[in-house]
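Hello again, I could really use a second opinion on something today. I've dropped the whole record in just underneath, so have a look.
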Amino acid sequence: MTVFSELRMRPATAAPSGWNASTTARLVISGAVIFMLLVGANLATPLYPLLQANLGLSSLDVTAAFASYVLALVGTLLLAGHWSDHIGRRAALLVAVLTGLAGGWIFAGAGTLAALCAGRALQGMAVALATGASAAALRELLPSRPEWASRFTLLASSGGVAAGPVIGGLLSLLPGATTAPYLVHSLLLAGLLVPLYLIRARPAIMVPSTPRPLHALAPRRPSVSRQARGAFWLASGVGFLSFAVFGFSLSLAPGYFAQVLGTDSRPLIGVLAGLPLASSALSQLVSLRGRLAIPAGLAVLGVSVLLLGAAGAWHSPLLLVSAAVAAGLGQGTAFRTVFNDVAGKVEPARHAQIISTVYVITYLGSAVPVLGLGWASAVWGMAEAVQAFVLLCGSAALLLAAATLAPSIRTASHLSA
């Protein structure tokens, strides 16, 4: 099928043509797309203090720009999270790359808050289009190894979010600090259009049989099958909480870390902001199983978030770095376990739709709490607002750890009886 026949959801009339890529190549392409889109979406993290100064933005303005990305992402997941189940994974990924390129160019040339928000919104739409498609593609390419499909999905996602601030900070040292990162990234992202166009795509999963195939792309009410419902809500709750911490790291944390360390080095700020995401990505390479993986991961996340607040109060760089790394390890362990559980219980034909719905709730965690944090910073000051934020998030993680520990203990006691 050609890209155009996929987008029209109609079988191609000509014989199959194009690059008949191996499974390994398809895995790399699927992972690379979501990785690169998330890198681009997070290049701005170390640039926010500079953009604040250049454009005269407040802390609330910064969180508004960040939230526009998340809200557009969530809205697109709700409206189009199921599209790749009909048009095919390749076509959805290609459209996502084109949308991401447009968003990056608009953000790089933005001179107002409205333009920043518009660019960020397009980047959010691109990530949303690729999220379900990439996860479903990896699942289909590894049908006998579903756990590793989930690992690759989270590794590419967390890795892209972690690498974005670091790459953005380093590239901001080039002439044109706020535009150079996006120029370099656009060249690399555009390069993915070539294999996406040339590859011989597998047929779309659910080609509509009606004469009006576009009806299949209409927004759908989110729904979850009964057997996956418990796993779905646990994954969504863990995702919401952990992404609230990540949202802080990628929005207001650069300015907060700069105050704690007394530095204005954008590469250093980018590394610190990306530490939780980087350790979360690396945790996908470690096999930690058992009934206690979820409560243990959440407990580590909760304690580490509380220590982030202590590091700011005590101005301790060592504690700041240690707590950021530990928070990512705890989050990665817990979220991978619950994500793998829900992915394994979802029927293949609705995989992209259900996983997209999980991410809807998860990404709301990086928008709603962070908007509240931005408002609190404007009212009470950043230091006080951050302390309240980490206290709430840390306590919530510990409570959720206790809630997931009780069923694990009961199950273990029944098995031993």
